[in-house]
Amino acid sequence: MAGEVAKEETVVTKVKILKKTNVKPHKPLGKKECQLVTFDLPYLAFYYNQKLLIYKGAENFDETVEKLKDGLALVLEDFYQLAGKLGKDEEGVFKVEYDDDMDGAEVIVAAAEGIDVADLTDEEGTSKFLDLIPCNKILNFEGLHRPLLAVQLTKLKDGLTIGIAFNHAVLDGTSTWHFMASWAQLCSGSTFISVPPFLERTKARNTRVKLNLSPPSDAPEPAKSATNGDVTASVDPPLRERIFKFSESAIDQIKSKVNANPPEGSSAPFSTFQSLSAHVWLAITRARQLKPEDYTVYTVFADCRKRVDPPMPESYFGNLIQAIFTVTAAGLLLGQPIEFAAGMIQQAIVKHDAKAIDERNKEWESNPKIFQYKDAGVNCVAVGSSPRFKVYDVDFGWGQPESVRSGSNNRFDGMVYLYQGKNGGRSIDVEISLEANAMERLEKDKEFLMEA
After folding, report:
1. Structural class in CATH, domain 239-443
2. Is 395 known to be catalytic?
């Protein structure tokens, strides 16, 4: 089947922490600081961004750990911000601070020798990853007193995992995978990284935004019982997470279908991303069984490096993303052919040019709002990550990952992560978090799975 559902198993994760250390840049750098700008600050109340890379091989675990730590010390010379801490100046402007006396990045060494690589790559969900990735449910503002980068290296029966937690107020997905590729390059024998990070953050935005940030509560609002007026805690519906694998052939079929009858006014043929986005949005909306008048929102966290004026290089290190929204009624969305959804998404993306970005920044700076990770909108489908990130090129010297996944942080009903497929080419893995009953319906949707 084209939209293959990942196999479901049950794995009890037994992880033993062996050692915790810190890694600093290989050579002294002195004192450095970097102002957080408008693109960074809204993410202070998100959780740390978590990734898990699962590898076979790397037979001598102790030697591998030392090799990875040595490479980390070298790469932190260029990406020094990840070895620092968050700070605030006397005016309340957030910044990244680094000096040679700081501890640097945290490295945790662990063992789970009863677990096979296959146990982690076949199962749905993310609960099995909880003990393999650090910083579960740690908010980014806690970077005031925590490392901005934490790494856990865990020995498996037939391989190892590299669990990484990045402070999302410091970097976005493009910067995350730039860092990972650079670290792997140094571990594979290179004496320098091919593309150094562009660290002049205020080139993208030079406004000093003062925030009076108090720790946000992630606890649900209390709700009154309909029967007796007692105050009870509202409970979010249980979520399930699954990967749906779309082959090159399936992606080509979706793209061909969406472009068969382009609507009037479409600016260009629909891209792979726009076509797949429409396919996913429609399927999740069907699975949720919304009323025709219910609104549904599609949100894309778009890279703005080439959109801002002046454009920033791909190597810009920091956050340079903004959420782009499009909204319609569920009945209208489902009552139209798929190119209607693709057209809405395309139009929202095209309109988000340098002028729109600047207006969004000015609006936010005049009334700063710190978002929480699930503020993306009602009945939302929100897309993070990107299939253009070369996640399977992260080879530390013993081969490419068997699987790349996101951790349990920053997930809500409708969160979608897109990754390049393991087989490369145009294949794409779609990782979806959805309310459990809706997920069960999605798994049976032959149109979504390309079985119709």
Report:
1. alpha beta
2. yes
Q: Between 3.30.559.10, 3.40.600.10, 3.40.47.10, 3.40.50.720, what CATH number should domain 16-203 receive? A: 3.30.559.10
The active-site residue out of 100, 294, 395, 445 is 395
Q: What span, in angstroms and rounded, lies between the C-alpha atoms of 235 and 156?
A: 35
3-state secondary structure of 286: helix
| Regions of the chain short of the pLDDT cut 70 | 1-13, 123, 213-236, 265-267, 373-374, 376-377, 452
Domain boundaries, the chain: 16-203, 239-443
Task: Judge contact between 187 and 397, C-beta under 8 A.
Answer: yes
Token pair in block for residue 307 = 């959109």
pLDDT of residue 262: 82
Reading the block at residue 375, the tokens are: 């503020």
Task: Give how far Cα 121 sits from Cα of 53, 54, 125, 128, Å.
Answer: 10, 8, 10, 11
Residue 178: active-site member: no
The CA-atom distances, in angstroms, between 209 and each of 37, 88, 109, 142, 307 are 7, 11, 38, 19, 22
Among 131, 168, 178, 279, which one carries the catalytic annotation? 168
| H/E element, 333 | helix 330-335
pLDDT of the residue at 419: 95
Tell me the pTM: 0.91
